[in-house]
Recover the amino acids of this structure.
């Protein structure tokens, strides 16, 4: 997420969501009563000469609404925000009337709250941080042709592109093998340079035919560290067209999401493992987690994101105080999405659990 303005003192953030995950992050923090401002379209009807209203024209405008309902998903994975209009062009809209804003990625918006909870600030901080996370490298490979691109915040930048003359295999097998070996070594060096410069954790290797498979075998024999970073995918052609085919499959987004989910899954697996071993260094439920926090025993605090939208205000405030207290004690806090199994499992445990630094006895 790209933050344009962050002024918690006056309750305001302005932002541009860059991914579907960013839209979901915003969905998690919006509550009835918050103000939401964004560009939208609305049908505006005008009176004709006989006093009747015409069919109207849909016009683009910026409106601010006081939120009553929020939903996420459906067609286009838009964030749908419904409420009463409190600001806009009064010559075109009636203040106090209802309107629904459909926010998509790459669209600027503003949220104003009377007070930002600690847990809400953390979600915004994580969304902003994820935009600055290590980029993904895409390499499309055909015989004698390579194109390497960097995907940062889901924008593509080509950083290397080259072609080499490869001897036809049927005319001279020995020469073909030699030139392909030289070509593969050059590609591997390009990849090593890119990994060193951009701190790459994930590499997508794509191409038609057997060239990319042969290159993968070549890498495994020479550099296991790089080989473990590679995920292979078949595309119909190499070069820039192949790059766009990889992006059309939304592979970078899927990989980033898989890494995030895998991280949350490992935490919950560790939680259940400790329960199974009766180690005593876990806690779940508001009462037990509160006790662990008061003793300074919490290593990782886990909260399901449905806890942000519960009707019990006192409980919400209690959860927020846990996050703030855990931060002061230098503990880690992870907010798990209930759109995935890990968050759902945690929700069934009461929505809050913790991995502890040491065992404690429950009172």
């Amino acid at each position: 997420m790209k933050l344009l303005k962050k002024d918690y003192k006056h309750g305001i953030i302005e932002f541009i969501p860059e991914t579907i995950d960013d839209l979901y992050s915003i969905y998690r923090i919006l509550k009835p009563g918050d103000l939401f401002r964004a560009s939208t379209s609305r049908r505006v009807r005008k009176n004709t000469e006989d006093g009747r209203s015409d069919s109207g024209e849909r016009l683009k405008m910026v409106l601010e609404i006081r939120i009553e309902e929020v939903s996420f998903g459906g067609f286009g994975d838009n964030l749908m925000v419904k409420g009463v209009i409190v600001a806009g062009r009064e010559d075109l809209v009636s203040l106090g009337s209802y309107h629904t804003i459909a926010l998509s990625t790459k669209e600027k918006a503003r949220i104003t709250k009377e007070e930002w909870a600690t847990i809400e600030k953390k979600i915004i901080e994580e969304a902003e941080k994820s935009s600055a996370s290590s980029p993904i490298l895409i390499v499309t490979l055909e015989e004698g042709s390579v194109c390497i691109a960097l995907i940062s915040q889901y924008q593509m930048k080509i950083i290397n592109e080259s072609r080499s003359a490869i001897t036809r295999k049927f005319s001279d097998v020995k020469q073909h093998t030699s030139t392909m070996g030289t070509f593969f070594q050059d590609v591997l060096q390009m990849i090593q340079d890119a990994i060193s410069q951009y701190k790459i954790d994930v590499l997508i290797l794509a191409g038609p035919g057997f060239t990319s498979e042969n290159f993968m075998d070549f890498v495994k024999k020479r550099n296991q560290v790089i080989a473990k970073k590679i995920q292979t995918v078949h595309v119909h052609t190499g070069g820039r067209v192949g790059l766009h085919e990889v992006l059309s499959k939304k592979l970078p987004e899927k990989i980033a999401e898989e890494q995030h989910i895998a991280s949350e899954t490992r935490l919950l697996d560790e939680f259940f493992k400790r329960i199974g071993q009766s180690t005593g260094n876990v806690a779940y439920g508001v009462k037990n987690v509160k006790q662990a926090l008061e003793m300074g025993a919490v290593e990782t605090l886990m909260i399901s994101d449905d806890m942000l939208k519960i009707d019990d205000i006192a409980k919400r405030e209690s959860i927020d105080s846990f996050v703030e207290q855990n931060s002061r004690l230098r503990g880690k806090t992870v907010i798990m999405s209930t759109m995935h199994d890990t968050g759902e499992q945690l929700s069934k445990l009461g929505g809050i659990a913790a991995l502890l630094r040491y065992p404690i006895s429950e009172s």
Remarks:
- DSSP finds ten helices and 16 strands in the chain.
- The radius of gyration is 26 Å.
- The chain has a mean pLDDT of 87.
